[in-house]
Structure formats: C-alpha cells, structure tokens
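Fold this sequence, please.
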Amino acid sequence: MQHLVTVVQRLSQARSLDAITSIVRRAARELTDADGATFVLRDQDLCYYADEDAISPLWKGQRFPMSACISGWAMLNRQSVIIEDIYADSRIPHDAYRPTFVKSLVMMPIRTMEPIGAIGAYWASRHKATPEEVSLLQALADSTSVAMEACSVFENLEKRVAERTEELNRRTAELEVLNRELEAFSYSVAHDLRAPLITIDGFAEVLKETVGASLDEAALEHLAHIQGGVARMQRLIEDLLGLSKIVRAPMQKSVVDLSAIATEIAQRLRASSPGRAGEFTIAQNLTANGDAGLIRIVLENLLSNAWKFTSKREHAHIEMDTVHGAEGDTVFRVKDNGAGFDPRYATKLFGPFQRCHTQSDFPGTGIGLATVQRIVHRHGGKIWVEAQVDRGASFFFTLPG
C-alpha cells in the first residue's frame, strides 16, 4: 500500500503520456510481484501495446484488433479479466501467447465507463491472482485514468496558451508597426501644421513692426488675436505630441516621493504669481511605485489646474492628501476651492479637447486631463473627479503601492 501511495503521488505529478506510461508499466509489475506488465492504449478499434516491463519481450509497439486480444476484451466488456491458465480460456489467442513466457494474467481496463486503455500483469508460472493483487491493480488503473485525464487537460491548456501567446505576439508586432506609423504621421502632421502657423505669426509680426504705429486700436487688437490664436494652436500641437509620446513611452518604475514633487510644483506655481493669495497643503510621506517622470506630469497637470481654477478666489486653498478607497486601497486626492464644474460632465472631462469653461475665463487646450488619465491607466490605476459649480473640485487617483 505504501508503494501504491508513492506511485499515485508520482502519477499526480506526471505531465505527459510518456511519463505516465513509464510509471505504470513498472508499478504494475512491482505491485503484483508479476514477471511482466504491459500498458495498453485504445487506438480507435485497435489495442496499442504502448510499453512493457517483462522478463522477456511481449508485444511492445504492436497493434491488434480489439476483438483479437484479451486487453480488447477487457475494454469492450468494461471489466477486469483474471486468468489462471491462459490455455484453458477461450478468450485468449493462444498462438499469440505461445512464443511468450506468459502462463497466467490479470487485465484491468483503465476507466470503467468508456475505457481508454488497459493494464496487464503476467506470470511465467500458473498463478491465481489474489484479491489484494487485483485491488492494487484496480487502484493503479483508477489512478492512471485520473492522471491521463489531467494530462489531457494540461496539454490542452498548454496548447491554448501557446496559441494565445502566438496570437498576442502577432498582435503586439502589428501594434508596434501601427504605433511607429502613427508616430511618423503625428510628427508629419505637426510639421505641416507648424509651417503655416509660423508664416502667419511672422507676417503678423511684420505688420506690427512696419505699420503698427499707423494702425488704430481695433486693428492692433485684431493682430493680437491672430498672434494669440497662433500661440494657442502651437501649444495644442505640442500637447498632442506630448500625449502621443506618453502613450508609447517606456516606463522606468521605482518608489516615487509624491510629496516632494508636489511641494516643488507648488513652490514654482506660487513664484509664478507673486501677487496671489494662495495656500498649498501637501501631506507628507506620500509615495507610490511608478515612473517618476510620468507621475510628475500627473501632479503638474492636477496642481496647475487647481491653481488656475482658483485664480478668481480671494484666497485659494489647494491640498493634496490621501483617503481610503472603497476596496481598502490608498487613494490620492488633489482638492481645491476653485470654480468647480457641473458634475454631469465629470466623465467627459478626461477626453481630449473636453472643457467645462470658456477660453476667456480659464485658458487651456483641453489635453492635460486626457494626458493624466492615460498615465494613471498605464500604471494600472484609476482616476475620477467630484465637483460642484463654484464649490471647487476634488480629483482622486490610485497608483500601485
């Protein structure tokens, strides 16, 4: 029984039919103290003697009709065969056994319902198999059935994984080609757009320098609008190129100190508007695992937006801290007391060119939050916003710990 337990353990770890065959042919002989053992597989209407362990050769590698051999009888009748004298049993093809040493045998089907093979044990002298030997062989056949089914499942899974991997590799290669084409297209379009913008801006500047003194206030204002539009278009082109780079840029992950980056950005924003009354409150020890450069872009956009949309407040208050998420994870929050917006547009805000305020009230290209969302998603995080008109906004995002 201890030997059987060891064999069952080995069968549970087998991952190929060859491994199962090697284990079973030896175990069948050792468990029954037989002089030979064979492992037979059903091959449609044939019995395939896949392997053997015996004192002299039997039928390894040969195929016989199911109706012409005792292993076929055991499978067709779905029951074990115990024969003390093979020459006294009409089910035995005597001519096939005469060249062999076999005098007695036990043949056990593998799986009672719809047998898929059989295990045979042979003796060189007349031997009536004991109930214990039959039970051990039956237990081996049952374990073999389970191992073969598990092996089939494992092989199917390996095949599916290989197919999926091949498909994934193919699609990845196609995506890389498309990305390269998209990058080339983006730069080509950006170049084609920049050229006329430079021309427009150049001629507007020439007009200002040559005839500016003779133009009235309305004409000068028109020139300023032209140059302002050119500047916004150039910023938009740069932002779109930046967005396309962020989507494809490789990431170098490390532990990032968000508190330090946010503090640096807040100091720079205050320095850019020395006359403004504003307060930044940055929580300490905020860290995450990610690409430091990309996370800096996230904080740059969120804090700059908060600074921009609180510009009409007598005293701006912007804070960055963490809150506990619904799933127990850490959620970073950037909160302000600025203009806010209609919460019905919260989900649209992360799309390119989506804005909730006019250009005259709060200038911008509408690319920043789209960039932020793509960076957060690339890190495997989520981002969302809560806001009310004239009551500020709170942006929430998650990053790997």
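The chain has nine helices and 13 strands. The radius of gyration is 40 Å.
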